[in-house]
Amino acid sequence: MASGLQRAVKLAVVIIFILILCSALLSFILPFFGWRIEIVLSGSMEPAIPTGSIVVSRPVAPENIREGDIIMYSSIGGKTLTTHRVVKVETEHGVQFITKGDANNGADPNPVIPGQLAGQIVFHIPYLGYLIQFIKTPLGFAIALLIPAAVLIVSEVYSLWKAMD
């Protein structure tokens, strides 16, 4: 029974380690292709995209954006990113997008122009952003990487010790 439990713990640790490694690799590779991974910090898109979710956006030409699409765009000063739904596409004075957070009562005050467009949301993973923020802390880093590594090492040393008996 202990051997089965030991294998299950090893497997769980290996799976968690692989998931963390793949997530880290993707977060470094995707930006080279213009894709972005961001954490949603507000509840303006709830319930479609909960606070703490990660959103993945891909580059998109402004003429391919349609009403109902969820886009990521930078503020006029370029300091923050917002993820909202396009409620109207205006073409009167060039392409402009009227956006609105699903949880907000009204549309955003300023239209989004093509230069602000950071991408179109492809998918989101609810609440994973909380985990990512935690892993960025020293304690989170220790728990996510060092503890699983220590468990694997201790488990292997224990297996070798048992084999020597």
Based on the model shown, name its key terms.
Umud Fragment, subunit A, 2 domains, 3 helices, alpha+beta, 23% strand, 6-stranded antiparallel sheet
Explain this structure to me?
The structure is a single chain. The chain has two domains: 1-32 and 129-165; 34-126, Umud Fragment, subunit A (Ribbon), CATH 2.10.109. It is built from three helices and six strands, in the order αββββββαα. The chain has helices spanning 2-29, 128-135, 138-164, and strands at 36-39, 54-58, 70-74, 81-90, 96-100, 117-125. The longest helix has 28 residues, at 2-29. The mean pLDDT is 87.
**SSE sequence, one letter per element:** HEEEEEEHH
How large is the count of helical segments? 3
Structural class: alpha+beta
Shape: elongated
CATH-assigned fold name of the largest domain = Umud Fragment, subunit A
- Tally the structural domains: 2
> In percent, how much strand structure appears in the residues?
15-25%
> What is the distance, rounded to the nearest whole angstrom, between the alpha carbons of the first and last residues?
19 Å
CATH architecture of the largest domain: Ribbon
CATH class annotation of the largest domain: Mainly Beta
The strand count comes to: 6
Mean pLDDT: 87
- Biggest sheet character: 6 strands, antiparallel
Rg, Å, rounded: 22 Å
Strand neighbour order, sheet with most strands: 1-2-6-3-4-5
